[in-house]
Amino acid sequence: MKSILHKALTRGHANHGWLDSHHTFSFANYYDPERIHFGMLRVLNDDQVAPGMGFGAHPHENMEIISIPLEGDLEHRDSMGNTTVIKEGDIQVMSAGTGITHSEYNKNKDKAVKFLQIWIIPSKRNVKPRYDQITLDISSLKNRLAQILSPSANDEGIWIHQNAWFHLGDLESGISLTYSLKSPENNGVYIFLLEGQLEINGQELSRRDGMGIWDTKSLELKALNKSKVLLMEVPMG
């Protein structure tokens, strides 16, 4: 088994006033040659957008883009004609493929919106752009790792063009779980702790810490306090 630890305070940070963003991997003006990606996981941004502000229309191509709201309401518009609002409990995906333009704004004028912006390098280039979103049953996250993303449209959660699986868990203190990789011969897992304190294979993680693990078939999680965790299994090459 191999692993890498990224403590929360070592992330890149950019505060633009309207946007306060922490970057686990190199992004925009933050560049660290040792932190470009974890396998096919290219971007993990922890964003907070001020009331009424947001990202104006901008293009993407050949990237799988996943948004996970944590607090507040995020309004999405895109060049495919989609206009929607996503909030805590929703998961959004865009396959940028041959090209897409979109904007993201804080729907509310009185409170910030917080969300994770995640980019996955796709297994197929120049696909037809697509958009999808789902609403989770929050109770399904209780003391288990619930699948929220996979490579298959017929599986649980949303799907993307990559051999990747995401799981979310909301764990009470003392809960121990085993995660078995879906594709252990090719994939690794990046664990991002949203809240609380976890022990992963003996390594303690605190709020917003990240840890990548590969060359293993499974990993052990133990919640040291009430914790919310995101597991992202992705190909390593």
From TrEMBL:
Residues 148-234 form the Quercetin 2,3-dioxygenase C-terminal cupin domain. Pfam families: Pirin, Pirin_C_2. Coiled coil: none annotated. InterPro entries: Pirin, Pirin_N_dom, Quercetinase_C, RmlC-like_jellyroll, RmlC_Cupin_sf. Residues 13-120 form the Pirin N-terminal domain. It comes from the Bacteria. PANTHER family: QUERCETIN 2,3-DIOXYGENASE (PTHR43212:SF3). Belongs to the pirin family. This is Pirin family protein. The lineage of its organism: Bacteria, Pseudomonadati, Bacteroidota, Cytophagia, Cytophagales.
